[in-house]
Amino acid sequence: MDKFQKINFQNFPGTPVNLSFDTFYSIILVEHYGDLFINFERHVLNGHHLIFLCPEEVLGISNYVSLRLISFAVGPDIVKDKSFVYNFGNTKKQFQVKPSHEEEVMLLFNELEEACLRIDLKRVTESLNTLLDFNLCSSKGMDMQDLMLAFQFNGLVHLYYKTHHRMQFYAEKLITPPKYLTEKFHALGLISPHGLIKKRILTEVKRQLLYTDKAIKIICFDIGFNDPAYFTRFFRKNTGMSPVGFREHHKVTC
User: Fold this and answer.
1) Which UniProt keywords apply (predicted)?
2) What is the pLDDT of residues 144-154, one digit of tens each?
């Protein structure tokens, strides 16, 4: 099975856009400037930035010069790929491109666009691998073993957060004691493993509230909660609003 599948390339010329893909991973190049929300958190970017979104994550951008996006599905063995895990398992979603590397990244996106137009899967795969490795190489000097553990945890959360809300499940998947995971997350300056799970759940609840017309009860069950009343209390405790109130307050045209 191919590493990358169903590849699509898009250009956006500065008009406001909301992006969220149910089953696709995305790499986005924001050129020069961007005022945007990633998973409902605001970021003001100056200079060229790369953004890495997993399926069901959300990008809303209202003010920018140019945005280029490549989206794709992946095969099941992708979780063994170090550069993929580093970029898409990373708790940080956006990375600034150093001015000395801007031309190289722009050329990679040009190659990706041309290869997609020609439906040249081999060339697309080569360019995507180069792009993923490029961002991995920029992490020199970090404790890669600890980082990869944290990013593998985050990658598993993206796969299983709808059915598994407890940290113990992910610790067992990684064959790592929960206490050790918590200590490593703290040492890296990351939010706790439990906090990361909760954050991912809340992002998806918000996405469904704003970008679908699903009933609150349906969203509750889809995210893995069995009790709508408990689901409402959980959401209110972490956002200050009920699900209905949040939807009414932040109405978005999908």
Assistant:
1) DNA-binding, Transcription, Transcription regulation
2) 678 788 888 98
What does the DSSP assignment read for 76-112?
A: GGGGG-HHHHHHHS-S--EEEPPGGGHHHHHHHHHHH
CATH topology of domain 4-137: Jelly Rolls (2.60.120)
Q: Where are the domains of the chain?
A: 4-137, 144-249
Q: Residue written as tokens 């150093």?
A: 98
Mean of all residue pLDDT scores within the chain: 88
- Which CATH fold would you assign to the domain 144-249? Arc Repressor Mutant, subunit A (1.10.10)
Q: What is the pTM of this model?
A: 0.80
From residue 47, give the alpha-carbon distance in Å to each of 51, 95, 97, 98, 106. Answer: 13, 10, 7, 8, 13
Tokens of 98: 């150093």
